[in-house]
Amino acid sequence: MRIGVLTGGSDCPGLNAALRAIVRKGVQSYGDSVVGFLDGWDGVLHDRALELDIPAVRGTLPRGGTILGSSRTDPLTAPDGPRRIAETLRNRGVDGLIVIGGINTLTAAAVLADRHGVPCVGVPKTIDNDIHGTDYTVGFNTAVTVATETIDRLHTTAESHKRVLVVEVMGRSSGWIAVHAGLAGGANCVLVPEFPFDLDRVCGHVESRFQATYSPIVVVSDSALPASGEVDLTGLSGIGEWLGREIERCTGHEARTTVLGHIQRGGTPTPYDRWLATRFGLHAVDAVHEGDWGAMVAVHGASVERVRLADAVSRGKRVDASLYADNEIFFG
Predict the structure, then answer these.
(1) Domains with residue ranges and CATH for the chain
(2) Where does substrate bind (predicted)?
(3) Staple 95 to which of 1, 55, 219, 305, CB 3.0 to 4.6 Å?
(4) pTM metric for this prediction
């Protein structure tokens, strides 16, 4: 068979590990050829691609980013997009397309597979871990590791200066990074979009921590909001800076904010993300050979299984109350 592959949406650690696995499994186990489309769906729309053989992916396992490039191009909104996608695959002789992406990229794959007959198989990747139907997505573990290491380092400087340190982490509409890194890093308060926070209660946790002679660390998802509603972020970097300013105003304790931003998305993937991306890539090739179009590979426990792409992207995966309660034990 001839397999196509693309990486779409935001980059994250582990994409190259998935590409490497797809090429190795396809070429070695099935005798396939593999073509990589450049810059996500844009490469398929404009027929820009390169051949991927084993030498092309050698040494890429620990490398961050993606050797294929990426973009946020949506083929469903492009002029005559579905027809152009199908035509490119037909002209290239592609029997099946492996789509590695987040919610938006995989939503396009689901629609193309189910409504337009484009042979797509999905691989979930996003540091936000917000794709339904899989325990974890490629890139999430690395982002949590980076955030946890940052929190570990900030504890000592917080103690040295008796300051409040606010750590803003990514989380488009879910708080997965915050709850994992906050618990692992010993944060004294974790704020996520699923549960709007009460500023007075946050300040109470801060005061309680200082009374115990320790300096508090507050972790906040960049999409978290106070229960009072919208906040004015004009002139501020985001919710983290706003929160630090408000905590300082309410408590009188000096506060500083660290915004991790794209640091969470870059660099070398953790061993877990390499393992997960590799297994996803291997199983995606099997799905192509079985003609399981519209499927997405997913991890449940230690097992890699398949779910329907349409189901996986039908709703976001959000932090539930029982998981958040584990963090709340350590507030204050």
Answers:
(1) 2-139+267-312 (3.40.50.450), 141-264 (3.40.50.460)
(2) 126-128, 163, 170-172, 256, 262-265
(3) 1
(4) 0.96
